[in-house]
TrEMBL record:
<dbReference type="InterPro" id="IPR002577">
    <property type="entry name" value="HTH_HxlR"/>
</dbReference>
<dbReference type="Pfam" id="PF01638">
    <property type="entry name" value="HxlR"/>
</dbReference>
<dbReference type="InterPro" id="IPR036388">
    <property type="entry name" value="WH-like_DNA-bd_sf"/>
</dbReference>
<dbReference type="InterPro" id="IPR036390">
    <property type="entry name" value="WH_DNA-bd_sf"/>
</dbReference>
<keyword id="KW-0238">DNA-binding</keyword>
<keyword id="KW-0804">Transcription</keyword>
<keyword id="KW-0805">Transcription regulation</keyword>
<protein>
    <submittedName>
        <fullName>Winged helix-turn-helix transcriptional regulator</fullName>
    </submittedName>
</protein>
<feature type="domain" description="HTH hxlR-type">
    <location>
        <begin position="9"/>
        <end position="107"/>
    </location>
</feature>
Length: 114
């Protein structure tokens, strides 16, 4: 994913962390509780293993999710939201609510003139 350049208002920084097709959905899933990689794959139909692994690595690097290796046989790794990630989830929830209002507004506008 292409990273946005620095900005003074912080929006580019926030979008760099949450940008990407799957990051908001991943954040929601781990917000509900710790999830194994296979659980995330089942919960997010359409995501490839490669993309999911990449997005999880980026989110871990940004401090949004934590990876916990249980050191068991067979191997068990879980991903959970961090406190920092919870604060981002609050912002994403506000954006989601705005998106719902925006869709209702657009629907009320009727078809656009061609």
């Amino acid at each position: 994913m292409r990273r946005l350049s620095h900005d003074d208002c912080g929006l580019a920084s926030a979008l760099n962390v949450i940008g990407g097709k799957w990051k908001a959905a991943i954040l929601w899933e781990v917000h509900l509780g710790p999830r194994r990689f296979s659980d995330l794959r089942r919960a997010l139909p359409g995501v490839s293993e490669k993309v999911l692994a990449q997005q999880l690595r980026e989110m871990e690097a940004d401090g949004i999710v934590a990876r916990r290796d249980h050191q068991e046989v067979p191997p068990r790794v879980e991903y959970a939201v961090t406190d920092h990630g919870l604060s981002l989830n609050e912002a994403v929830t506000v954006m989601s609510e705005w998106g719902k209002r925006h869709e209702a507004w657009r629907a009320a506008q009727g078809p656009r003139a061609a």
